[in-house]
Structures are given as structure tokens and as C-alpha cells.
């Protein structure tokens, strides 16, 4: 990479290294990605509540206008289930894509790697508006093509499950859940960050697809040499 372009030297250097989590107080420190204010703070950073403010009104509109057929609840649940698979697939094959060369490494670092380096940094925990909008448009097209008029119920289920993912992901990093279920999900996700160094457990809101694809444990050749051990709650 000739120079660092719009990216900071800190970002490029971090992208070249393994995504070893920072420990202690530095776990919440922010890796500055961009030199300019707009992409750094307005596009790739924001309040964890932002997805709920953007998505909830659209979900309400979908539910109000969706066809009221007997099978609408089943289609809603199908949409919610499809989110869990999309979440797993993106996390495993897109966010952890083994990029070669600086451009690819910087891209994957900006998309996801920064979260592994600073796992407790709150302002980059949620998806950005660009990410939310792009995925929503893609899935809207998929549901319209495959389900016809029922697409609204499926899209509503997909987005409700997405918002549940955002809430669960925040709890996994910043919460002290009392329920046994949420504690189990929290342990599952933190093991992805620390015990397995990003090489297994790609389901975040649910371990369902890790069970299906048998990725609760990494392959012997998948673990990075820099395993970052940390106590799990």
C-alpha cells in the first residue's frame, strides 16, 4: 500500500497484524480508522441505539401493511430464522475472510477486525447505517423474488431478529445478564473473541448454526498463534 490514503497509520499497522484483543483498559480504546472526521465518526461510528432508531419505524410499517394471511406468522418466523443464517455466514466467510495484501487486510479490518482488537469499544459495536441499508435492500429483493406478496412478513421477521442480534451483541460485551440463556450466549460469543481467537463460534445471537456446521471448536490448523486468553464470565 503506497502511503495510507484516507486511513490512519494506526489502522494500516493494526490491519497488518493478527487481531489480538487489547486487554485491560485498552480493550475499550478506539482504533482510529480514518483521517477525516466524517467517515471516522459519522459513517463508521455511532451510538448503539442508532439501529433501533432507524429500523424500528420500518418494521412497524411492514407489519401494518403485510398481508394478514393465516401463514403470515410462519413467514415472519422464516424471516427471523434467515437472519440467524445470514449473520453466521457473513461473520464466518465475509468478516473473517483471509485477505492477502494491504488493501484486502485494511478492508476486512475496517469492516470487522477493529472490533476484535478493541472488543469493548462501544461506539463501533453496532452495524453502521451503510451496512444496515445495504443488507436490508439485498434481503428485500431476495424476499420479494422468492415469496411474492409475503415478503413484508419475512422482512419484518428478518429485521426484528437483526435488532435482537444488536441487543444480544451489546449484552455480550457490556452486560451482566441474569438469565441462564443470555449468560450462555455471552460465554459463547466471548469464546469467539478470546478462547478461540476468532477461529470458531461465528454465531452471535445464537449458536444454532455453529451446531449445524460443527464450528463450536476451531480446526487444528485454524487457530492463530497469538491466542488471547481471558477469563469468561
What this model shows, in words?
- The protein has nine helices and no strands.
- The protein has 233 residues and is an all-alpha fold.
- The chain has one domain (9-213).
What does this entry show, briefly?
This protein is mostly helical and 233 residues long. The protein is built from nine helices and no strands. Helix 6 (129-147) packs antiparallel against helix 7.
Q: Main traits of this protein?
A:
single chain, 233 residues, disordered C terminus, mainly alpha, globular
Topology overview:
Blueprint: H1 9-16, H2 37-43, H3 50-65, H4 72-95, H5 101-117, H6 129-147, H7 151-174, H8 180-193, H9 208-213
Stretches with pLDDT under 50, minimum 5 residues: 223-233
Q: Report how far the terminal alpha carbons are from each other.
A: 40 Å
Mean pLDDT: 88
How many separate structural domains?
Answer: 1
SS summary, helix count:
9
Helix/strand order: HHHHHHHHH
* Percent helix: 55-70%
Please state roughly what percent of the residues sit in beta strands, choosing from under 5%, 5-15%, 15-25%, 25-35%, 35-45% or over 45%: under 5%
| Computed CA radius of gyration, to the nearest angstrom | 18 Å
Total E-strand runs? 0
Structural category:
mainly alpha
Apparent shape: globular
Biggest sheet character: none
Amino acid at each position: 500500500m503506497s502511503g495510507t490514503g484516507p486511513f490512519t497509520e494506526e489502522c494500516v499497522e493494526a490491519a497488518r497484524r493478527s487481531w489480538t484483543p487489547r486487554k485491560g483498559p485498552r480493550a475499550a480504546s478506539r482504533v482510529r480508522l480514518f483521517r477525516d472526521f466524517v467517515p471516522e465518526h459519522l459513517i463508521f461510528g455511532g451510538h448503539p441505539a442508532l439501529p433501533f432508531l432507524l429500523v424500528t419505524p420500518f418494521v412497524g410499517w411492514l407489519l401494518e401493511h403485510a398481508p394478514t394471511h393465516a401463514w403470515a406468522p410462519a413467514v415472519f418466523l422464516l424471516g427471523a430464522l434467515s437472519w440467524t443464517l445470514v449473520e453466521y455466514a457473513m461473520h464466518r466467510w465475509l468478516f473473517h475472510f483471509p485477505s492477502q495484501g494491504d488493501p484486502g487486510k485494511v478492508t476486512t479490518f475496517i469492516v470487522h477486525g477493529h472490533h476484535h482488537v478493541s472488543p469493548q469499544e462501544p461506539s463501533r459495536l453496532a452495524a453502521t447505517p451503510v451496512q444496515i441499508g445495504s443488507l436490508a435492500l439485498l434481503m428485500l429483493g431476495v424476499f420479494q423474488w422468492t415469496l411474492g406478496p409475503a415478503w413484508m412478513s419475512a422482512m419484518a421477521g428478518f429485521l426484528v431478529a437483526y435488532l435482537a442480534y444488536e441487543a444480544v451483541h451489546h449484552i455480550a460485551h457490556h452486560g451482566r445478564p441474569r438469565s441462564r440463556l443470555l449468560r450462555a450466549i455471552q460465554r459463547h460469543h466471548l469464546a469467539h473473541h478470546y478462547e478461540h481467537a476468532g477461529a470458531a463460534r461465528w454465531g452471535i445471537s445464537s449458536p444454532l448454526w455453529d451446531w449445524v456446521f460443527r464450528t463450536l471448536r476451531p480446526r487444528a490448523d485454524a487457530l492463530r498463534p497469538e491466542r488471547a486468553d481471558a477469563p469468561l464470565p
